Amino acid sequence: MTSLRHWRAPLLALAAVLLLLPRTAAAEEPAAVPEGAATPDRPSYDVSLRADADGSHWTGHQTVSFRNSSRTPLRSVDVRLWGNGTDGCGTPGEPSPVRVSKVAGGTPRALTVGCTALRIDLPAPLPYRARTSVSFDVALTVPARVHRFGRDGAYRYLGNALPLLSVRDAQGRHLDPDVGFGESFYTLSGDFRVVLDHPSTLVVPATGTTTRHAGAPGRTVSTSVAHGVRDFAWAAGPFRSKSVTTPGGVRLNAYWTATTSRTGVDAGLKDAAGSVDAFGKRFGRYPYGELDLVMSDRLDDFGSMEFPGLVLLWTEPEASGAVHEIAHQWFYGIVGNDQFSSPWLDESFAQYATQSYYREPTAGCWEDQGEWPSDTAALTRSMGYYADGHRSEYVRVVYMRGGCALHDLERVLGGKAMAAMMRGYVRDHWRGVATTADFKRAAQAATAKDLGPFWRRHRIL
Q1: Closest CA to 188 of 398, 27, 2, 45
Q2: Which of 86, 168, 326, 329 is the most buried if burial means most Cβ atoms within 10 Å?
Q3: DSSP readout, 347-396?
Q4: Rounded to whole angstroms, how far apart are CA atoms 320 and 309?
Q5: pLDDT score of 36 more than 90
């Protein structure tokens, strides 16, 4: 999420917003999955959507195939409609932004978790390693707000809009709610083929590698293919654009609105080009081929947001947020995590990578944070904890203390050992999912020192 390089003023505004957000009820109690393996895995999404005249409405069809990686037969799957998180079930006059109908390949139940979860019962139990698919019609209405799934003037942003498979693992079904800030997402990497039929007046940046051809008169068909990604996002509008290739060979496609200054665009491109190559050398080569930067100077109430192969950037007056969002291509994108239960595993890591890229002074970083905001605060708290009366702690702990803790760890291990450990950690969880326990094991393996006191001091539980 939003970069906190220049965090003092933005922190106050963000904290105020978090305190005003309504609480969200807890999700239904998950049913246990005995066999531990995250399932359904190896998803493949095939999507075809048609836009209206200005990209506010998209309708079409989606098919998702998947494998059961658990030895327990799979009797149902859960599809998350994350785009309904803010609006919930809507009203009779204004329905939810994301709607599915005409389900095939299974029997749908009623929507739950504020209309963000749809359970589909399979016609027969799916055995271990067997594969099947479900399909449904999709209707998307872009909400009238400046947001990662929202609109601003002639521009439409469709982040977290596509229905995605939820995960089951040893903890059960992951049907956590969208709490209104941060991220609650937990998905496994998969393949996407998304065909978008839209008016030719709309420029459509998207996750993956995109090819375009003429459709019906006045329309263009954009086909985007992405492999090994956890989500798919796109935008639509009369964007201006420019493409460059970094010295490391990554193609950057910049898209910006009519009011966005070229100074902001150039700053974003410069930071993106430098950081994507630097992080590639440090953590492992960027795997998605190209990267789209969708920029606007009007996202100040929202900020910036990462998606695989596409980042939505507010061109901040003081600096670009590109480095932090591009760091998320590795921490959340390549190395996945359950963002509801362990938000520090992506936000703290992205903040650490950003501060390291800018070579910010961090020697006294941890001590500068002062006292913990509460006795219950810890780096490893979930989004549920922050939503339940601790919202003011979220930024202070996850971004600020989290980044500082990783810099402290680097001082304990030494620079070379930390770099080798981090590269190995990324390699070992490449396009997979990591946990706090995984990271602690990787760090402990990098030193003969007992890191127990370090974890306790930094409340990495």
Answers
A1: 45
A2: 326
A3: HHHHHHHHHHHTT---TTHHHHT-S-SSTT--TT--HHHHHTT-GGGHII
A4: 18
A5: no
Where b means 16+ CB within 10 Å and e means fewer, 131-150 reads ebebbbebbbbbbeebbbbb
Q: DSSP of 302-320, one letter per residue?
A: T--EEETTEEEEEB-SS-B
In this model, does residue 177 exceed pLDDT 80?
A: yes
Mean pLDDT (whole number) for 110-118: 98
Closest CA to 135 of 186, 39, 41, 60: 60
Distance CA 440, CA 416 (A): 18
Domains located in the chain, CATH noted: 33-327 (2.60.40.1730), 344-457 (1.10.390.10)
Binding site listing for Zn(2+):
324, 328, 347
- Report the alpha-carbon distance of residue 328 to residue 330 in Å, rounded: 5
How far apart are alpha carbons 351 and 310 in whole angstroms? 18
Helix axis angle, 344-357 to 436-445, nearest 10°: 50
Distance, CA of 182 to CA of 427 (rounded, Å): 26
What 8-state DSSP symbol labels residue 267?
A: H
How high is the pLDDT of residue 4? 53
**Alpha-carbon span 278 to 34, nearest angstrom:** 41
Question: Which residues, at least 6 apart from 205, have a Cβ–Cβ distance to it below 8 Å?
Answer: 234, 235, 239, 241, 253, 255, 292, 294, 310
Looking at residue 408, the DSSP 8-state letter turns out to be H
Closest to 209 (Cα-Cα) out of 190, 197, 227, 221: 227
H or E segment to which residue 195 belongs: strand 190-199
Q: How far is CA 196 from CA 47, 86, 217, 288, 335, in A?
A: 8, 25, 15, 20, 28
Q: Using pLDDT thresholds of 50, 70 and 90, give the confidence band for residue 34.
A: very low
Encode pLDDT of 341-381 as tens digits: 999 999 999 999 999 999 999 999 999 999 999 999 999 99
Q: Which residues pair with 46 in a beta bridge?
A: 63, 193
Q: Which residues are annotated as a binding site?
A: 324, 328, 347
- CA gyration radius for the chain? 21
Q: Judge contact between 141 and 147, C-beta under 8 A.
A: no
Contacts for 118 with CB less than 8 Å, ≥ 6 apart: 78, 79, 80, 81, 100, 108, 109, 111, 112, 163
Residue with tokens 């100074």: 263
Written as one string, the DSSP assignment of 93-121 is TEE-SEEEEEEESSEE---BTTTTEEEEE
Q: How many CB atoms lie within 10 A of CB 35?
A: 14
